[in-house]
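User: I'm writing a tutorial on reading structure tokens. Could you give me a worked example: one chain, its sequence, then its tokens, then a sentence or two explaining what the tokens reveal?
Assistant: Sure. Here is the example chain.
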Amino acid sequence: MTIVDTPERRQLRELTRAFVSREVLPHLADWERAGDVPRELHATAAKLGLLGIGFPESVGGSGGDLLDSIIVTEEIIRSGGSSGLVAALFTHGIALPHMVAAAGGRLGGTLGGRLGGPENTDDDLIDRYVRPTLAGSMIGALAITEPDTGSDVASIRTHARRDGEHYVVNGAKTYITSGVRADFVTTAVRTGQPGDGALSLLVIDKGTPGFTVGRRLEKLGWHCSDTAELSFVDVRVPVANRIGEEDTAFLAIMQQFAAERLSLATHAYAIAQRCVELAVTWCRDRSTFGRPLASRQLVRHRLAEMHTRAEAARAYVHQVAARVAAGEPVVTEVAMAKNVAVAAGDWVVDQALQLHGGFGYLRDAEVERHYRDARILGIGGGTTEIMNEIVAKGMGL
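And here are its predicted structure tokens:
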């Protein structure tokens, strides 16, 4: 028994697998082609307690910590679900944590006092947004990336000017996961001068005048996870919708990156593990020149290498995630874990598709979907190159 293999977590794995088998697999192909996940799936996942995993019960969650969230993600993919499905169903994993933290909560802990000022009641945001989202009745998104800034958070241009009890927001966001379906968007805005890091987070409701969802972006992978461009033209947002104190969001955003990056690392190694399983089954069943593929030493050795890389990535991500869950500041290790898992996922899925031959290139092959979905993981949450910069900095370079 290990930290991720306790009796309680085994039950969580079983619950997740049953959810995927019953609620996801019969419909996933249709969702992938439609480019959408039904809102009803959020409510179903909430009733089972899966939607709130990793969030304190005091804010409407199911309890648990980062490791429990990782287990759910891992099992969804290993049970035949898609990385895109996870992105669509659990977008609140990046939309809500800032609210919980500002209200005094700690993911996996308890809710205490709030950090917001007298004009801003962060506990109210918990009731208005966090609880309904974890109950499956609302969908949230996180809007940080802009057309000209990419991963450079400090250079955000979307500006919020204070006007009495409102902020007037102008700007644009892009590549926003669940931006089409979201009922609200946790939005990073500049509340100070350019270059001074004075950023704030505002919760902006869909339907607010001046806030428009632009075109739905078509992507290589993550087909059932909608992605959108957002535009803000003189959007008036109540000061009460600010998360925490004004000009303090840069640090809050940076602190939440660890969980997001480890989540994407989990996508990567889970895709690798699933592709190993698919490839092993295929190579046992597929015969060429009168012999099963698995009978050939070259194929067996390739499968062994695929399995080794997938398991090594999983072990390292779990180790780093346990340290993050314990509150350790392991920024460098998180960056390394993401890159290790992404590299393993990219290589393993490529080998798996090759072993599947022509069938692996067809939309009917599950391995084809994983091949497409895996490509975003070295881009989202900070590119592989940015992760290497973080590692280099941690080395004193």
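What the tokens reveal: Confidence is low (pLDDT under 50) at residues 106-120. The domain at 251-394 is CATH 1.20.140.10 (Butyryl-CoA Dehydrogenase, subunit A; domain 3).
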